[in-house]
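The record is given unchanged here:
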Amino acid sequence: MSLIRAQSCPSRQARIAYENLARGYIDQVDAYRRRNESMTGRAH
């Protein structure tokens, strides 16, 4: 959602803020996934 908003923002600063927000979400999801994999092992 943040990337969609970033694309539609006329302001460069707002676009950068939304892109950074999206990167933060991606980093959080990756960290969560790694933590779960380390606790449960690989599913396949």
